[in-house]
UniProtKB/TrEMBL annotation:
Gene symbol of the encoding locus: proB
Listed name of the protein: Glutamate 5-kinase
Keywords, sorted A to Z: Transferase
Species this chain originates from: Acidithiobacillus sulfuriphilus
Keyword Transferase recorded: yes
EC number: 2.7.2.11
Classification of source organism: Bacteria, Pseudomonadati, Pseudomonadota, Acidithiobacillia, Acidithiobacillales
Amino acid sequence: MNQARRWVVKIGSSLLTNGGQGLDHGAIHAWVRQCLALRQKGVEIVLVSSGAVAAGMERLGWKSRPTALNQLQAAASVGQAALIQVYEEWLREGGVHGGQVLLTHEDLRDRRRYLNASATLRTLLEMGVIPIINENDAVASEEIRFGDNDTLAALVSNLLEADLLVILTDQTGLYDADPRQHPDARLLSEVTAGDPALERMAGGVGSHVGSGGMITKVRAAARAARSGTATIVASGHEPDLLLRLHRGEALGTYFHPRLARLAARKRWLAGQLRATGTLHLDAGAAQVLRKKGSSLLPVGVTAAEGSFQRGDLVVCLDPEGREVARGLVNLDAQMVRQRIGKSSKVIAEEFGEVEDPELIHRDNLVLSETEIPGGGA
Ligand SMILES: Nc1ncnc2c1ncn2[C@@H]1O[C@H](COP(=O)(O)OP(=O)(O)O)[C@@H](O)[C@H]1O
Ligand SMILES: N[C@@H](CCC(=O)OP(=O)(O)O)C(=O)O
């Protein structure tokens, strides 16, 4: 661990909020102190911190978590300011600045905004600032929310090609079953990121303040592995956890990043959470995509679903309905439907000169073996 130079540290709601009773200042102090000590040892730290809604509820005097989105957003707006104040207070002790970065799904979907976010975060790190990232809850609408910060932390790890993602939570690590439901569950100390068996072990949300549960952490580890990032899920209650990890102590669950490491642009593509359409492929097309990583031509498509536009993300399925790949489509849905099953020659004759004979160029296509099981279309 002491070789790892860039760490993304995600601190979950269940830890930050004293079981929903407002922010735990003492605990935040302890994590910040460790982050400052790691910085002294040459580790770059990026924090992904939840807790805005819980902090807002405390400030507003609300006793129970609202369910209406507008109230959650209002609480997050008030609470995010409170949260940053606490981090700032402790960082100042160490003479370090914190830089607030609030992201929405849209910021990581749009290539230009994605590159901007990357440039800003890298600049903050070069300046010695500790970025403190959260979802921009005040504006993110229901359909486009990350929802849990595990996913956000994994995408940030990809964006920055972090060496290590540490997910701090209220459990010692990943167990072979939810320890709240199964007191005899065993802690897994080393696993392989992306192993489908792990998803079956991870249950839903255990705490009443967290939003993802263990499954989003297991999927986050698989996502993080695309940039070669290892993940550790461990308990934030463990004293000096970050420093002990840095010293090489085996704590929590270590996820080996054994998935194929994707190139930067493909990583951005694979990180897209939602697709706008679906293309059904014949067996031949599915095979050349899988075996050769070829571009997708209209001749291999049997049907198109959805009302996508040129440049949107679509999912490609084989005749059995399994995901083959996903990519950015060159034509809108109507134009695709007109060209389904037709060879490039016929298309050229019927529609005149075509600029992009392929529906999805291979540079804009990412195969789904490197996709996360249940990653969501
Ligand atoms: N296999 C498992 N191993 C460990 N924890 C699990 C497992 N399955 C479900 N959980 C639950 O996931 C919870 C952590 O997720 P969550 O409450 O969302 O925390 P956070 O706010 O830190 O993201 C734990 O409290 C635990 O009850
Ligand atoms: N963005 C939200 C946190 C979302 C959330 O609870 O995430 P998690 O810590 O992964 O369970 C907030 O700051 O309240």
